[in-house]
Specification:
The protein has 16 helices and nine strands. It has about 400 residues and is an alpha+beta fold.
C-alpha cells in the first residue's frame, strides 16, 4: 500500500474497510524509512486524539519538509509547522487557539456572513437553467477564497494566486519544485501584507493579530496562524461542498428528503461531515514513549496517521456506515477532531454549508452531474479528498 498513490486515493474506502477488519493498527514505512502507524477504527482514533501525553502532536514534519524556506525567506519550514496551533498541546495550543478563534469572533463573523451572502448571490446569478458548469470553478473555489481573503483584506490582485498556491500546500505538492515555489510565494506574500499592516493597520483580522497580539505572538506565529487558517479552511470548504453534491447525486432519496423537509438541514450538515469527511487522513501525531497499543508494539518517535474518513465509516459505531442518512441520530463523527480540540472554524463552515446547499438546490432543484460518476477524477493529494473537476448540469 502506497498512501501517496492514485490507487490509494481512488480506493480509499475499500482499502480502509479491509484494514478495519484485518489490521486496524497498520505498520507503514514512509519514503524516508521512518515508521508510521495507520489507525483506521473510530475508537482507536478517538483514544489517540484524547491522549496528548502518549500521543502528542508534531507529526506534520514527517513528510520531510526541507530547509528551503529558511534559505529563501528566513523561515525554517519546521518552525512554520511547529508554531502552528495544530502541532501544540496544553497552554501553547490554547494560546494560539485564542488568536485563531478571534477570526470567528462576532465582529468578524458578522462580516463573513455578509460577505457570504454577497458572494453567493453574485455567483448564483451567473448560473442559468440548462447550463453545464464546473461547480468547483463556478462556485466552490471562488466563494471560499473570496471569504478568506475578505477576512484578512487581501488585495484583489493576490486572490487568484492564493487559490493556486493552496492546491500545492495542502496536498503532497510541497515535495515538488513547483510546490516549493508555491510555498515561497505564499509566504512572501504574507510577509509583505504583514509589513504593510504594521505600518498602516486597518480594521481587519490580520491587523488585529499584528497589533493586539504584538506582546504574545512572534512574527512566524502570525504567519503560521494565517497560513493554516487560509489553507485548511479553503480546502475544507471546497472538499465538503463538492463531495456533498456528489453524495446527494448518489442518494437521490436523501436529496428529495432534504428538499421536502428543510428542517433537516442541521442534521444533514453533520451527516455530510461524517460521510464526506474532508480531511480523510491526518498526520500530526507521534508516539512519545515505547508502549503497547491494541496488541501492537509502538516505539518512541513512531508517527501516527489517523484515518478520520475511515473512522467516520466504522461499522461498529455507525449503522449503515456507507449510506448517506441525513436524519442520522446520534452522529458522533470526528471530522473536526475531538470535541475539546474542535476546529475553530467549524461553526462557520457549518453555516456556509447550510446557506450554499439551501440556495443552490432552491435555484436548481434538479441539478445533476454532467458526467457519469465513474468519470469523476479525484484531485492529487493524500490528505484532503476533493475532485479535480465537477461538471454539473443546472436544472
Amino acid at each position: 500500500m502506497n498512501i501517496f498513490s492514485s490507487h490509494f486515493r481512488n480506493h480509499y474506502y475499500e482499502i480502509f474497510y479491509e484494514l478495519r477488519r484485518e489490521d486496524p493498527i497498520h505498520l507503514y514505512l514512509l519514503p524516508n524509512g521512518k515508521r508510521a502507524w495507520i489507525i483506521s477504527r473510530y475508537y482507536d482514533c478517538l483514544e489517540i486524539l484524547q491522549d496528548p501525553i502518549r500521543f502528542p502532536k508534531g507529526g506534520r514534519m514527517i513528510v520531510g519538509e526541507s530547509d528551503f524556506l529558511q534559505e529563501l525567506i528566513g523561515i525554517d519550514s519546521n518552525s512554520l509547522y511547529i508554531q502552528s496551533l495544530f502541532l501544540r498541546e496544553g497552554f501553547e495550543s490554547q494560546r494560539l487557539k485564542y488568536w485563531i478563534r478571534r477570526a470567528f469572533a462576532p465582529k468578524y463573523l458578522t462580516m463573513l456572513i455578509k460577505s457570504l451572502n454577497q458572494h453567493l448571490t453574485k455567483l448564483l446569478e451567473k448560473m442559468k437553467i440548462d447550463q453545464e458548469i464546473d461547480l468547483l470553478e463556478a462556485l466552490a473555489k471562488p466563494l471560499s477564497i473570496s471569504l478568506l481573503c475578505d477576512l484578512i483584506s487581501i488585495p484583489e490582485q493576490y486572490r487568484s494566486r492564493f487559490e493556486v498556491w493552496s492546491t500545492y500546500l495542502v496536498g503532497d505538492g510541497t515535495r515538488t519544485e513547483e510546490g516549493k515555489r508555491a510555498m515561497r510565494n505564499f509566504l512572501l506574500c504574507l510577509q509583505q501584507l504583514i509589513e504593510q499592516k504594521q505600518k498602516k493597520p486597518i480594521d481587519d483580522y490580520l491587523s488585529e493579530l499584528i497589533h493586539d497580539g504584538a506582546k504574545e505572538l512572534q512574527a512566524h506565529e502570525v504567519i503560521a496562524i494565517i497560513f493554516n487558517l487560509i489553507v485548511t479552511s479553503y480546502e475544507t470548504i471546497v472538499s465538503l461542498l463538492t463531495c456533498s453534491v456528489v453524495a446527494l447525486h448518489d442518494f437521490p432519496s436523501q436529496k428529495r428528503l432534504l428538499q421536502e423537509h428543510r428542517h433537516l438541514i442541521d442534521s444533514a450538515i453533520e451527516e455530510f461531515l461524517r460521510y464526506c469527511t474532508p480531511i480523510v487522513l491526518t498526520r500530526d501525531r507521534w508516539v512519545s514513549r515505547n508502549l503497547i497499543f491494541r496488541g501492537k508494539t509502538l516505539y518512541r518517535g513512531d508517527y501516527l496517521f489517523l484515518a478520520l474518513g475511515s473512522a467516520n465509516r466504522d461499522e461498529q459505531v455507525f449503522q449503515n456506515a456507507n449510506k448517506l442518512w441525513l436524519s442520522r441520530n446520534p452522529n458522533p463523527h470526528i471530522a473536526f477532531g475531538k470535541e475539546k480540540n474542535f476546529c475553530a472554524g467549524g461553526s462557520f463552515i457549518r453555516l456556509l454549508m447550510k446557506e450554499v446547499l439551501q440556495q443552490l438546490y432552491r435555484e436548481f432543484p434538479r441539478l445533476r452531474l454532467g458526467v457519469r460518476k465513474e468519470k469523476l477524477v479525484l484531485r492529487p493529494g493524500t490528505f484532503v479528498r476533493s475532485y479535480s473537476v465537477l461538471p454539473v448540469i443546472l436544472k
